[in-house]
Each structure stands twice: as C-alpha cells, then as structure tokens.
Amino acid sequence: MKGRPDISPKTVSRNAFSLAICLSFVAVASPDGFGQAKPKATSIEEKTKIHRLASANRSVYDAFVYLNRIPDKVEEDEEILDFTARVYSLLANQEGRVLIKLPKGMNREAYLGYKTFLSTDAEVRNGNCIVCHVPEKFTDLKNHALSEGGKALPTPSLRNMNKRKVDISKALRAKLVAAQKPGAPKDYQSIKLDKDDLTHLEAFLKLLDDVEDKNFRDLIIQAKVLDTSQN
Fold first, then answer.
1. Which of 128, 139, 187, 231 has its CA 20 to 30 Å from the CA of residue 48?
2. In this structure, which topology does domain 46-225 adopt according to CATH?
3. Are 115 and 79 in contact, with CB atoms under 8 Å apart?
4. Whole-angstrom Cα distance, residue 98 to residue 227?
5. 107 Cβ contact list (under 8 Å, min separation 6)
6. Backbone phi, psi, residue 16, to 5°
7. Are the CB atoms for 118 and 84 separated by under 8 Å?
8. Burial environment of residue 15 by CB neighbours within 10 A (0 to 12, 13 to 18, 19 or more)
C-alpha cells in the first residue's frame, strides 16, 4: 500500500501562489476577464480630429455653424425672436468683414436659404420656418393643426429628410399652398416666399443630412470664404 504524499505548509503555499499568478494572466488575456480595466471612451474631438467640437450632429449645416461660431440651438427659456436676433447679429458682423465661411457642399443659395429660414418678420423672403422647426433638432416637439378645424400633428424634424425619402421641393410647395388657405395658422399666414426663396430654402434644407465622422472633417478643412462684399 502506497503511502500518502507529504503535504507540507510550504507545498500548499507554493501551489496557491502559482494558482494566483495563472488566474491573473487569464483575467488580463480574456476580453471579459475580471479585473480588466474598461477601455477609455473616445471623445468627439478624438473621433473627428476637430478641436472644440461638442455637437454630435454631422450635417453640412453643423459644419457651417461650427466654422462661424453660430449658436446651434436655442438656449433654455430663450425666445425664438431673441435667438434669431442673436444669430442675425453675428451674421451681419461677419458679412461686413467678409468672414462668412461655407463648408464643402454649401453655396450662396443655401446661405440665403438659411437666412430666409431664420426670418420671422420680414416683408419679403419671410420663411418663418424657425418658429416651429427649432434648432438643434429642427422641431419644437409640439403638435400643430395646419388648417382651421384640422387635426393637430407633431412637427416633423427637418434633419435627414433625404434619408427619409422626403421630396423637399414638393413639401415646400405644399407648405406655401397651406399658408395661403383661409383659416391657415397665424405662423403660416406670415410666410412670404417667391420662387427664388423656395429654391434657396430647398438648398439649405438639403444641408441637414448627416455624414460620417470621417467625411465631416473634410467639410470643415475644405471650407471657403463667401464673398459678401456686394451684399
């Protein structure tokens, strides 16, 4: 009969130490290993390689407001008219110094469309769009009836309309027709647009489709200055 192996305290100690080392290697090697530190979250600046970029939106419009340091959203408790006045003041200042920068994909027509979009009290070229389609989401998240006695429907966002297969030109024409009908909402009644205004607005709204991070940087580094000396 074989004798029992000698299990001394030294042997137990050595075995426990070896086991601990093995387990530590397993924890490090395993993707889900216990004790493994979670990977550091990548910041927006690191992902896009664009300094002081805070917004997660990635459209040509977002590149435009970034380049020109234009506020991209209405502040809490800020009235729409106060927001548009703030933006118009910045635009006027930069137009006067010929400093308006247009990202790749944006032209003069789209810039004019942006100003029409913002306009709320002009005698001509008054889009009044921003009253319901509030940046940054381009919706006020409210329900509106488009005709007297009509059903109130949620204000759709104007972002990524091309991806949603929205015919922007058709939608703008329908909006203008609705504005001219008896019993149209007050915000619709103040809309004053001609054919050129609709073309400009369409050009602007097409800038609200998101692009990939890698392409967003190109929009910014390939920007050009808009000649506003004759405006």
1. 139
2. Cytochrome Bc1 Complex; Chain D, domain 2 (1.10.760)
3. no
4. 6
5. 203
6. -65, -40
7. yes
8. exposed
Tokens of 40: 């550091």
Give how far Cα 113 sits from Cα of 37, 42, 109, 200, Å: 50, 35, 6, 4
The structure tokens 């380049």 sit at 67
**Predicted confidence (pLDDT) per residue in 91-106, tens digit:** 999 999 999 999 999 9
Greatest extent of the chain over all pairs of C-alpha atoms, in Å: 111
**How do the domains of the chain map onto residue ranges?**
46-225
Which residues make beta-bridge pairs with 101?
225
Query: CA geometry: angle at 115 spanning 112 and 119, to 5°?
Result: 140
* Token couple for 65: 């407001």
Tokens of 55: 């917004």
**Cα separation, 179 vs 192, whole angstroms:** 9
Q: Is the peptide bond before 79 cis (omega within 30 degrees of 0)?
A: no
Query: What DSSP state is assigned to residue 178?
Result: H
Instruction: Name the helix (H) or strand (E) containing 24.
Output: helix 9-29
The string of pLDDT tens digits covering residues 192-222 is 999 999 999 999 999 999 999 889 999 999 9
Distance of CA 9 to the CA centre of its chain: 66
